[in-house]
Write a structure and sequence with these properties.
Layout (H helix, E strand, L loop, with lengths): L24 E4 L4 H16 L4 E4 L5 H10 L4 E5 H8 L8 H16 L2 E2 L9 E5 L1 H7 L4 H7 L4 E4 L10 H8 L6 E4 L5 H6 L5 E5 L3 H5 L3 E2 L12 E5 L1 H6 L3 H8 L5 H12 L6 H12 L3
Parallel strand pairs: 1-2, 6-7, 6-8
Antiparallel strand pairs: 3-10, 4-10, 5-8, 5-9
Helix pairs in contact: 1-11, 1-13, 3-4
């Protein structure tokens, strides 16, 4: 998942814009699987609450979605606390989910006049993962143990993890070690295939990846709390909340349903063998959990 490069919009000021296209709440999303699912979940939850929706999904990376919200081109979109903290606000990582949310909620309100609604309990954070067989062979369950075993292991990773503060440099500073026998740079879509084929021993994962459940992988415990929290929440323009009084209650009612287990299952339906459309996956989920 590409969480986007640092933004150059911290001084941006929201432009005046009419709220909604012809009375519709304009719902956006970024351009990867989980965001597309969340965007559809938000849109369909609003429609179930009687709000007309204009979809503006698949906008692109964080800077594009954020600027669209600031300009008033969209009214709401899903954002992650960790992305807001590091990439938008340029602050240090915070692993405590409550403190991370409080920090970004206050900063967005004060700096951008944007409102964070309730966060979902799932955490789509960075992680290292491996097969149960390898974890058992080397007796690995925590990142501290992986740091010591690294000289015997091959890491599969997307390139940006090698440079990020919450990536390999941060792991080495926080834990020591993490000097892998070999590092293989992979496209994000190929990492689990490489792990299954034995081309790598450990992969950089995101904790809501559907393959974690499907392949019964082990996610190593971040026992020294390096990785920041990445909880998703709707970020909305206050004009939209006034224009559509049912918007916040509808999305806040959805939030607690989106657990880590639920998001892994939803992501797998889109990215896995079924290759379902995000709109269909969102519809079935809302039917199943009886979100009105």
């Amino acid at each position: 998942m590409n969480r986007g490069a640092a933004l150059a919009l911290l001084g941006a000021v929201p432009l005046a814009a009419s709220c909604g296209a012809r009375g519709a709440a304009r719902t956006g999303s970024k351009n990867f699987t989980e965001e597309l699912i969340l965007g559809e979940l938000y849109a369909q939850a609003l429609e179930r609450a009687g709000i007309a929706v204009a979809r503006r999904l698949d906008l692109g990376a964080t800077p594009i979605a954020m600027n669209a919200l600031l300009r008033g081109d969209i009214d709401v979109y899903p954002e992650y606390t960790g992305t807001a903290l590091l990439n938008v606000l340029g602050l240090a990582p915070i692993s405590d989910a409550r403190r991370a949310y409080d920090t970004v909620e206050r900063a967005y309100r004060e700096r951008f006049d944007l409102i964070w609604l309730d966060a979902s309990p799932f955490d789509d954070s960075n992680a290292l993962a491996s097969t149960r067989a390898l974890a058992d062979r080397y007796r690995l369950r925590t990142l501290s143990e992986v740091s010591r075993a690294a000289p015997r292991l091959t890491l599969g990773t997307v390139p940006e993890f090698l440079r990020r503060e919450d990536g390999l440099p941060g792991l080495r500073r926080r834990y020591g070690g993490f000097r892998f026998k070999r590092i293989v740079q992979l496209d994000n879509g190929l990492k689990y295939q490489a792990l299954a084929h034995g081309d790598v021993d450990v992969v950089v994962a995101f904790t809501t990846d559907g393959e974690i459940a499907a392949e019964a992988l082990i996610v190593f415990e971040d026992d020294k709390h390096l990785f920041p929290a990445y909880q998703a929440a709707p970020v909305a323009r206050p004009q939209a909340l006034r224009a559509f009084p049912k918007l916040a209650p509808a999305l806040n009612a959805l939030a607690p349903r989106l657990t880590t287990v639920a998001m892994r299952a939803l992501n797998l339906q889109v990215d896995g063998p079924l290759q379902r459309e995000p709109a269909d996956v969102a519809h079935d989920f809302l039917e199943r959990v009886h979100v009105a």
